[in-house]
Structures are given as C-alpha cells and as structure tokens.
Amino acid sequence: MDDYMVAIINGRSDDDGKLNYLGYNFCFSYHGECLLDYASLKYPHISGFSKLDYMKEPNSPIYYLSLLDNIIFTNISVDNEKRGVLYFPKHISDKQLETLYEFIDSILDYDVWFVYDMSMMDGMFVGVSFDFDKNINTRSKLDEYILQNEEVLGNGQKIRR
C-alpha cells in the first residue's frame, strides 16, 4: 500500500470483493482526482461522477463511491508516519469482508481511522468515526467495529448492518 494513494474493495457488482489499488507512485495530485478517474472507468453509466468537483468538496468521490457499497482506503501517510482512513459503506458483503481482512493484514503498520454512516449535511459530506482504544492494531479495530455493527434478530441469528 505504500506506493498507492487509494485502495478500493468493490461491492455490489460482478467483481464483488475485488481489491483495486489506485494512484501508483502518487501519480495524481489529490485522492479525489484518483477516485474520480476510477469511477468514470468503473461506472461510465453514472454521469454524476463527471460533475463532481473534488476541489470544492474533497470527500464527494468517497461518499458517492460508498453509496455503491465500495470500501475505500485513502493513504494519507506523511514522511515516515503511515496513516490512512478506511471508509465503510452501509452494507458490506461477505466477499468484501473476507477481502477486507486480507487487506487489513497488509496495513497493520498504519495508524488507521474508520469512518462510516457518511451523509451530506449543508452541502458537506460527513461521517461518524469509529471510536477505538489507542494502541490496538488495525485488525483488532476491525473486529471491534464488525461486532459493534451487528444486530441480533428475534430468532437469535446475527447479521451485520
């Protein structure tokens, strides 16, 4: 992941659960630029991506890609500090979850912030960040997030939101 700006785990499509790395060697100036380039190739039938201005609202490509059930990781590392933000869609498929755990194992040395339940408020895109204890690894954070976002049905069967 060190050489890429973004990783996307596809959802709701023929390639559900497929991991894509974008922005090799940080060939784009902005994450939004990289994401819109991907979106125009992946979703050519959605004309709205061509109308987004990531310079006015940098999270707009992330928000709209998450509405299509994509999991998005942005590499925001600076110098030798490895950092990233992992954006979750409202629905995560079993294939995506499997790929996500494999991906998490490749970024255990990153300080990762989780964002979920994204929405638009007053023209800005906001989300809820997952509150976790300091000094636990990313895999443990993911386990805690998944457990926190399970619902128990009347028959005792557990499902994820």
Structural class by secondary-structure content: alpha+beta
Task: Give me the side-by-side strand order of the main sheet.
Answer: 2-1-3-4-5-6
Helix-residue proportion:
25-40%
- Write down the overall geometry: globular
Continuous helix count: 4
Report the sheet-strand fraction.
25-35%
Task: Tell me how many strands there are.
Answer: 8
Brief summary of the model shown:
The chain has 161 residues and is an alpha+beta fold. It has four helices and eight strands, in the order ββααββαββαββ.
Features:
161 residues, alpha+beta, six-stranded mixed sheet, two-stranded antiparallel sheet, 4 helices, 8 strands, 25% strand
3D structure, described in words:
There is one protein chain. Helix content is 27%, strand content 25%. The protein is an alpha+beta fold. It has one domain. A hairpin with a 2-residue loop joins strand 5 (111-121) and strand 6. Helix 1 (31-42) packs parallel to helix 2 (60-67). The two termini are 28 Å apart.
